[in-house]
Automatic annotation (TrEMBL):
<feature type="domain" description="PTS EIIC type-2">
    <location>
        <begin position="4"/>
        <end position="434"/>
    </location>
</feature>
<keyword id="KW-0598">Phosphotransferase system</keyword>
<feature type="transmembrane region" description="Helical">
    <location>
        <begin position="79"/>
        <end position="112"/>
    </location>
</feature>
<dbReference type="InterPro" id="IPR004703">
    <property type="entry name" value="PTS_sugar-sp_permease"/>
</dbReference>
<dbReference type="Pfam" id="PF03611">
    <property type="entry name" value="EIIC-GAT"/>
</dbReference>
<feature type="transmembrane region" description="Helical">
    <location>
        <begin position="6"/>
        <end position="27"/>
    </location>
</feature>
<dbReference type="InterPro" id="IPR013853">
    <property type="entry name" value="EIIC-GAT"/>
</dbReference>
<feature type="transmembrane region" description="Helical">
    <location>
        <begin position="39"/>
        <end position="59"/>
    </location>
</feature>
<keyword id="KW-0472">Membrane</keyword>
<feature type="transmembrane region" description="Helical">
    <location>
        <begin position="328"/>
        <end position="347"/>
    </location>
</feature>
<feature type="transmembrane region" description="Helical">
    <location>
        <begin position="177"/>
        <end position="196"/>
    </location>
</feature>
<feature type="transmembrane region" description="Helical">
    <location>
        <begin position="216"/>
        <end position="238"/>
    </location>
</feature>
<keyword id="KW-0812">Transmembrane</keyword>
<dbReference type="InterPro" id="IPR013014">
    <property type="entry name" value="PTS_EIIC_2"/>
</dbReference>
<keyword id="KW-0813">Transport</keyword>
<keyword id="KW-0762">Sugar transport</keyword>
<keyword id="KW-1133">Transmembrane helix</keyword>
């Protein structure tokens, strides 16, 4: 267990290259090529984290200044996903998430119940997060562990479900995002898109980055949009001219650099993805596998970044006016792209639809994060996490994700039965996607004489 914890503590920028190197060798990739591919992915993650760090360092003080400027007072501090991950993996229960995740992935693959081969094992912390909250709520270690296992199954169901849209919209063949914070928003976006399609005028509005740039010229360019959004946020924060301009250039830099870091990640993943496809084609000719990766690959898309930067000040406004909210958004403002990145494919890159849906998502999420704050605070204390002078902490990732409310709420009301219901639905979804649907497709093709 100590060795596993040491491996987890290496972080994704070190852990993923090692895993991808080993995975590449298993798939028959030459050692030199596998090593370079893994190293490139690790460097890409470092670059991506540097860009996210730039956004955090810029937006964090600006959001705090905005709150102070308008005299807002909220008692619960958003400590951000790094703290949430540390809290999740900081206990014996949380540290079991990775072996449970790997074991279930292998079993599901063997029985043909998933197409997702997840190499992003560090992000099992999202499952550890809900398991830890259920443990805090019930005091039952085994129910917490059961919650982790069921959450893993849910994540694989979502990974299989979203893979086609990821390939279609982002252009990432044979890659999916079984990501506990990002994937759940996909299920919300589907019915919202159905509603949007039936609203007169609104349903005709084209607002993808390409259309916006054509209509607005230079002002529609994503980098320039980042600068303009930075100017607005700086003004609302009460900054002086120098500080406003510095913030504007920083947000513009994020818009320009983020896609390039994602391109570097994809450069490293390509050889592994190609080797996996060839491996499966030879040994499992009737099956397609998806490589499960961090949704960080998607956050560099112009539609995602533009929407997220608009949602940042909206989220701060919602935090103040929303009855029942106690959370001051701070640590996770820069990671809002992760919460909405799988809404964007459903809306085909439509920024207006993404902002409207994202606003609703964040409004509900703030209430969930406020509701979960006592449990998150207690989990932090149990993990010996230093919360400083704060008496109440939460996080938008994963505190604001609806699956957190689902798991913890059902565990509170129905205990083991509630978690089992979630697992049965997710397993039913996997059976449909991987057993029933393929047979129906074959039957329909035969009916058409294909």
């Amino acid at each position: 267990m100590e060795v596993l914890q040491w491996f987890v503590d290496l972080g994704p920028s070190v852990m993923l290259p090692i895993l991808l190197f080993i995975f590449g060798l298993i798939l028959g990739t030459k050692p030199g090529k596998a090593f370079k591919a893994g190293l490139t992915v690790g460097i890409g993650f470092i670059g991506l984290n540097l860009v996210i760090g730039l956004l955090t360092d810029s937006l964090g003080p600006a959001s705090k200044a905005m709150v102070d400027n308008f005299g807002f007072s909220l008692k619960t501090i958003d400590v951000g996903w790094p703290a949430a991950a540390a809290i999740s993996y900081g206990t014996a229960l949380g540290s079991l998430a990775i072996p449970v995740g790997i074991g279930l992935n292998v079993l599901l693959l063997i029985f043909g119940l998933t197409r997702t081969l997840n190499v992003d094992i560090w992000d099992y912390w999202h499952c550890a997060f809900t398991g830890s909250l259920v443990y805090v709520l019930t005091g039952n270690f085994y129910l917490g562990l059961y919650t982790i296992a069921i959450h893993v199954i849910v994540v694989f169901f979502l990974g299989d479900l979203i893979a086609k849209d990821i390939s279609r919209f982002y252009g990432f063949p044979n890659i999916t995002f079984p990501h506990g914070a990002s994937a759940p928003s996909y299920l919300l976006a589907l019915p919202m898109n159905w509603v949007f399609d039936r609203i007169p005028v609104f349903n005709k509005l084209k607002a993808d980055p390409e259309t916006i740039q054509k209509r607005l010229g230079i002002f529609g360019d994503t980098t320039v949009m980042g600068v303009l959004i930075g100017l607005v946020i700086g003004y609302l924060a009460g900054y002086n001219v120098t500080e406003i301009l510095q913030l504007a250039v920083s947000t513009g830099a994020v818009m320009l650099l983020m896609p390039r870091m994602v391109a570097l990640l994809m450069e490293g993943l390509s050889p592994i993805s190609e080797a996996a496809s060839e491996f499966v084609r030879k040994r499992l000719p009737n099956r397609d596998l998806y490589i499960g990766m961090d949704s960080a690959l998607s956050v560099g898309h112009p539609a995602v970044l533009s929407s997220a930067l608009i949602i940042v000040p909206i989220t701060l406004f919602l935090a103040v006016v929303l009855p029942g909210n106690t959370v001051l958004p701070f640590g996770d403002l820069a990671t809002i792209p992760f919460l909405i990145c799988l809404m964007t494919p459903v809306f085909n890159g439509n920024i207006v639809r993404t902002v409207v849906a994202g606003t609703f998502y964040m409004a509900v999420g703030l209430l969930i994060a406020s509701w979960a704050a006592p449990l998150i605070t207690e989990a932090a204390l149990n993990a010996n996490f230093d919360i400083g002078d704060s008496t109440s902490v939460s996080a938008l990732v994963d505190g604001a994700v609806w699956t957190t409310y689902l798991f913890v709420g059902l565990a509170k009301v129905l205990s083991w039965t509630g978690i089992t219901i979630i697992g049965a639905v997710a397993m039913g979804g996997l059976i449909y996607l991987n057993k029933i649907k393929p047979k129906r497709t074959v039957t329909n093709n035969n009916d058409l004489g294909m």
